[in-house]
Specification:
The chain is of the alpha+beta class. It contains seven helices and six strands. Strands 1-2-6-5 form a four-stranded antiparallel beta sheet, sandwiched between helices. The longest helix is centred in the middle third of the chain and has 18 residues, at about 95-110. The chain is globular.
Length: about 200
Amino acid sequence: MLPAIERRWSPRAFDPVAEVSAGQMRVLLEAARWAASHGNTQPARFLLGYRGDDTHRRILGALRPRNRTWAHRASALLVGAVVTADERGELPNTVYGLGLAVQNLVLQAVDLGLVTHQIGGFDPDAVRAGFALPDDVLPVVVVAVGHLGNVADLPEELQVRETRPRGRRPLTELVFSGTWGEAAFSAEPADQPEHE
């Protein structure tokens, strides 16, 4: 397995003063741009805000209150959105295309020594209104980007979540062959990466 996949995790503890440069963000978004998509439709679009600017503040304001308790420290916040139609009509598999783009971005961040956290807890209507999104653009996810910070800066309940062991379901529960539920692989080794 690629080391970046094994090292990827989703911390909430971001360094509140470290910055992500425009050059680093360009590399992350280039990685997203080169993701596969259905028929090369490239439906992924992004709104980018750096900590302290108006875009960051508006994206932060669209997050659910619990997510705001830690996401304000992120060096950058991105809204990942999809364009659902083009001149040919409705585009297929747009959310899948955005997922591939975001995964490229996240793994590139690991390679650059950055951390990310993908956030589903936000108000899409607030993003739509706050950024005047066209009707054919659907906001799907917010991604916090930055440098790893101090776990002690998080609320106590999140400190516990931040430090618990990372786990994934075994392949025996995920991959089947022959009939549904019949495992394609035998049991896996117990060693797992340490973070969520």
